[in-house]
Amino acid sequence: MQYTEIMVRYGELSTKGKNQRDFVNRLGGNIRKSLHAFPKLEVHPKRDRTHVTLNGEDSDAVIERLKQVFGIQNFSPSLKVDRTLDAIHQGVLEMMTEQLKPGMTFKINTRRSDHNFEMDTNELNEELGGFVLDNFPKAVVKMRKPDLILRVEVRNNGVFLSSETIQGAGGLPVGTAGKGMMMLSGGIDSPVASYLGMKRGVDMEMVHFFSPPYTSEQALAKAKELTSKLAAFGGSLQFIQVPFTKIQEEIKEKVPGGYLMTVQRRMMLRIAVALAKKRGGKAIFNGESLGQVASQTMESMEAINDVTNMPILRPVISLDKTEIIKQAEQIGTYDLSILPFEDCCTIFAPPAPKTRPDTERTRYYEKRIDVEGLMQEALDGIEISEIKPDQNFLNQNEDVFAELL
After folding, report:
1. 209 is in an annotated binding site
2. Which residue, among 352, 22, 363, 325, has the nearest Cα to 187 in the 3D structure?
């Protein structure tokens, strides 16, 4: 059925005390950005809940998007009717005709924020319960754990009927835990790490290194499409593309093969830290899972982390590949991640990288390249864009992508 409003309830936000208003306002802003494709709806954040007035927008489509927004514990689509008994009867009849099946149990649960309404809570419960039994004689009233609860909320501006509670994504609103820089590849792991960081309220900025002509425009589009998928959980994301070709060419020319990956990762990390300092980031995030590949041993992490003292957070550090894939499938990034467009990490991967690189030796080899000059040139060439949910960056090659998927 076509609902008129969606009532959004909070989870952890209700425990935030004096800071609650900031969390609620942030959630309201995130909801607006996430629902940017529905221009007629209105979002009204309140202390105890947020009201999304649909104004004729497709309620089913809005519901699917709200399921993804972090900070929402659950929500209920509602039908607004006039404050008359006839209008309430008509709304109850419409809702119950669609949802109450023969033999199901039900309960009426009335709340009044307007105590001047002509009937009190108990009277309205009895009146509507009797009305339902008259129209659905096979239904059964049950006070404890009924199959269906019809909630009736009497407010100054109308009466709101709801009978369904839909689980939200939980977590904290994106942006309430500060800003982080995510080193986003085109693989499976980093989008999942992004999701997990965002769930704890981190405002992620996606830092993607690309190396044309060795990496293709399709690989860049793939990373942007992944970002668009992730943007649904918070409203929008900043995408920072960093030109990395010259750095990789110089490393390949001057650094021994076993240390190519280590020095390359150190340069990536330096650039991500520089961007964080410039843009207010408090930590670097990545998709490293301990022991999964050569650059993700503890020795490699030690040698790479050597370039900074900024916190480096790894949300998937203890997950195995099967667990990460399962999460990627659940959040809708897996099919994109496995598209065969190689990123700069795989293009320049050495045949036999060091799994236990020595930090001192890494520093020695790194002196062969112009670290500061190469970094500055890359930072001067960055491009930043805002990416919103539902943006399509792959549509220029629809036939190719359809075949690959």
Report:
1. yes
2. 325
Kindly state the tokens that stand for 254: 């001057």
| Kind and range of the H or E run holding 107 | strand 105-112
Query: Would the annotation count 186 as a binding residue?
Result: no
Rg value, the chain, Cα: 26
Q: What is the pTM of this model?
A: 0.86
For residue 183, say whether it is annotated as part of any ligand binding site. Answer: yes
Residue with tokens 């659950």: 74
List the structure tokens of 379: 């930072």
261 is in an annotated binding site: no
CA atoms within 13 A on the CB side of 31: 33
CB 12 within 8 Å of CB 25: no
Residue 115 counted as an annotated binding residue: no
Do 141 and 106 form a contact (C-beta atoms < 8 A)?
Answer: yes
User: Residue 73 contacts by C-beta under 8 Å, 6 or more apart in sequence?
Assistant: 9, 10, 11, 12, 167, 168, 170
Which tens digit of pLDDT belongs to each residue from 13-55?
Answer: 656 667 788 889 999 999 999 999 999 999 999 888 899 999 9
